[in-house]
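Purpose: get a first structural picture of the assembly so the mutagenesis plan has something to point at.
Setup: two entries, given in the order below. No constraints added.
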Amino acid sequence: MKKLIDLYHRLLTWMLVATVAILIIPVTLQIISRYTELIPSYIWTEELSRFLFIWMVMLGAMIGIRERTHFEVDVWPELKPRTNALLRIVSSLFVLVFALVFAWWGIRFVHFGWAQLSELAELPMPFMFIAWPLTGATWVLFLGESLVADFRVLLEAPAE
Amino acid sequence: MSSVALTPGGAALALFGALLVLLFVRVPVAFALGLACLPILLIEPRLSPMMLFNETFKAYNSFILLAVPFFLLTANLMNVGGITERLVRLSRAMVGNFPGALAQINVLLSVFFAGISGSSTADAASQSKIFIEAQVKEGYGLSFSIAITAVSAVLAVIIPPSILMIVWGGVISTSIGAMYLAGILPGLLVAAAQMVTVHVYAKIYNYPVYPRATLREFLYSAWISIPALFTPFIIVGGILLGWFTATESAAVAVIYAGLLSIFIYREMNLRQLYHAFAETGRLAAVALFCVGTASAFGWLLAYYQIPKALLENVTSWGLGITGVGFFIAFVFLVVGCFLDAIPAIIIVGTILQPLAQSVNMHPIHFAIIGIVSLAFGLVTPPYGLCLMISCAVARVPLKFALKDTMIMLVPMLLMLAAIIIWPEIPLILPRLIAPELLK
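Result (structure tokens, whole complex):
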């Protein structure tokens, strides 16, 4: 199971890198087309960059949960491992609620915009909207994994 | 609106109460902001959780915020491509013979860095790796080294280009070109304050000095840095001349840094490039995801007209421009302790704008007060991103470097006070260079 999740994590990271790398292209085309005759001014450049941007944010937000890079405000003193695990469980459960909201209402969100096309390039909008429920589902997976780990720490016999 | 279930006071209590409880149990800020909206969305008959999706979608579907990953990428390319290294050499030739040499270099490099990248978090991340260990090795205190690296990183969003100014321009519709020009002098003043602080520290603790660089070394290091130092002129000039928009200028910075790394300095390999992309995506995404949920939170505040209720009292105090300036700085400094700067602009900037307007404060003056205060918020606990990053690199808890950070903030706050009292400090450069932007 852990290997599968690792693999999925790698895939997401790779996609994240791809979005960042490609992102620069449409914006560059936009500038070049304005000042030279080399290429026609494509109307879809801005839309494509926003499309990639949304995916970059959502992919990064997905792996941020597993890598624990979402920023927290920490007002606690240094905690013992078990207390720390308990606190992490509490906070993970809250995040899990949010993940479920994203997954559940996210599906309705996609449904809602099912037939919409983007204004300029006429890309089907669900290509963007689907990022939301997918993010929710991915969070549920990653949170499940970390919750199991934290419960193990919590239930372990104290070291003393 | 007669059909609202909650009064502004009740809604404010529910939103801020939930937010504080969630932050207290260490729910990540981005999630706490979204979750705090949830009960109200379920209670209020006219609203539904769908609003979370509409608001986050609207936030991410924005051309302006694209500047964030671009500036982070520029910074990451500078580091792997050898640009940073050359700027360190130039800084050393310039201030290496001052007491506390390495710390002075730290500050000066931040100034150069600020002129190329617009991201303080990127500055803190890269300079923590360069300086903290090196300074400790030369006998500087660890807490001092962390603190000076973190506080000098805030210059990146004050000196143009700046992510915060681009976001501010998008949210409060202020000229980005004018803000860029206005940020230069305040940024240099804050940097000067930091260099004086380093000097005092160096005298008290006897920090080491390097031999004075020869004129030859200075000229050579300046010569190899010229292509890199040219970046701010391309970016700021390009915007002022109307060649490209603010977001496009960030893309130009990426391309320029990439070209320098590949063709002029030739130090980058594919592996490093992949790494630069991955780091950029990670940091940009977690920062921006928070912008989405903050927008939803801010939207709810506006829905219940909470800002209006909060500000009703303040307008009756009869403050003048300076009084309002201090009030605005205070609010941003407090909010900056708990929120990242971009969400703070979205939620609080729009609330304060009518107040600034009511006393005829110049919009650019208002913007610079807000941005400098929020920049300081990047090193104030409990949520000071730059300080958190520097402490994380040094592997110590945030509390460790707190005292020195607070000491260093004092002269910086004096500079902020000067900016509030004398609007000419931010306004003089735009007035001289591009007066048409100030109207």
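Chain B touches chain A through 59 residues (CB under 8 Å).
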